[in-house]
């Protein structure tokens, strides 16, 4: 990567970070492009250069997260391999692997500001997250439970599994503030992973 490319990537990253923080604090309507550029220390035209406008930038924050998630998952997951072609034991092991990697990803790539933004977005009727990685995880859960991916039980079990991963970050008053910390340490991450494993093992026992 040449110096210009690095500069462009740094500018883009600063804009995304500044926009995420301001959108989380002030909302979409309460945040201006000028404020974002000032916070990111970039020229006003950079928003148009990368995204086109404020609405596209707002959507770009979520798309950036999904792209990072996809790139990260390529290191341990083959999305082209159909879980239906795998044994239940293989899917159970894969579920353990995915959940552990999700914890690592979530606590490394998702800021508190982004969490606030996502929580607000999910309250909107038209908000839909299209994540191939999460869809694949649901397919693995469906194979483990021997049910269709759209089965009610599969949807809720996947949801509950994800909640085991993200609840400490979503509920800082019941985690970080009680711990007297500003962020999670390695020991905390280990505990979270073990808790997710306990939940997966409970699912496996339910299936028999």
Provide tags for this entry.
mainly alpha, Arc Repressor Mutant, subunit A, 10 helices, 2 domains, Tetracycline Repressor, domain 2, 208 residues, single chain
Task: Itemize the secondary structure elements and their pairings.
Blueprint: H1 3-26, H2 33-40, H3 45-50, H4 54-73, H5 88-109, H6 112-121, H7 132-145, H8 152-170, H9 176-179, H10 186-207
Helix pairs in contact: 1-2, 1-4, 1-6, 5-7, 5-8, 5-10, 7-8, 8-10
What does this structure look like?
This protein is an all-alpha fold and 208 residues long. It folds into two domains: 1-60, Arc Repressor Mutant, subunit A, CATH 1.10.10; 76-207, Orthogonal Bundle (Tetracycline Repressor, domain 2), CATH 1.10.357.10. Helix content is 72%, strand content 0%. The chain contains ten helices and no strands. The protein has helices at residues 3-26, 33-40, 45-50, 54-73, 88-109, 112-121, 132-145, 152-170, 176-179, 186-207. Helix 1 (3-26) crosses helix 2 (33-40), helix 1 packs across helix 6 and helix 7 packs across helix 8 (152-170). The longest helix is centred in the first third of the chain and has 24 residues, at 3-26. The model has no long low-confidence stretch (mean pLDDT 91).
Task: Give a short summary of the structure.
With 208 residues, the chain is mainly alpha-helical. It is built from 10 helices and no strands. It is 72% helix and 0% strand.
């Amino acid at each position: 990567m040449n110096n210009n490319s690095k500069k462009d990537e740094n500018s883009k990253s600063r804009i995304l970070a500044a926009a995420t923080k301001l959108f989380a604090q002030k909302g979409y309507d309460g945040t201006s492009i000028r404020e974002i550029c000032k916070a990111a220390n970039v020229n006003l035209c950079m928003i148009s250069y990368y995204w086109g406008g404020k609405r596209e930038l707002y959507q770009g924050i979520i798309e950036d997260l999904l792209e990072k998630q996809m790139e990260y998952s390529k290191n341990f997951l083959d999305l082209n391999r159909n879980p239906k072609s795998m044994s239940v034991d293989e899917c159970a092991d894969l579920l353990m692997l995915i959940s552990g990697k999700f914890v690592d990803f979530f606590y490394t790539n998702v800021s508190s500001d982004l969490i606030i933004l996502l929580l607000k977005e999910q309250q909107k009727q038209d908000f839909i997250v299209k994540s191939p990685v999460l869809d694949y995880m649901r397919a693995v859960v469906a194979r483990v439970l021997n049910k269709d991916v759209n089965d009610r039980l599969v949807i809720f079990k996947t949801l509950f599994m994800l909640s085991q991963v993200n609840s400490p970050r979503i509920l800082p008053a019941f985690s970080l503030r009680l711990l007297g910390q500003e962020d999670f340490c390695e020991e905390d991450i280990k505990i979270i992973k073990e808790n997710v494993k306990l939940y997966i093992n409970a699912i496996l026992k339910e299936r028999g």
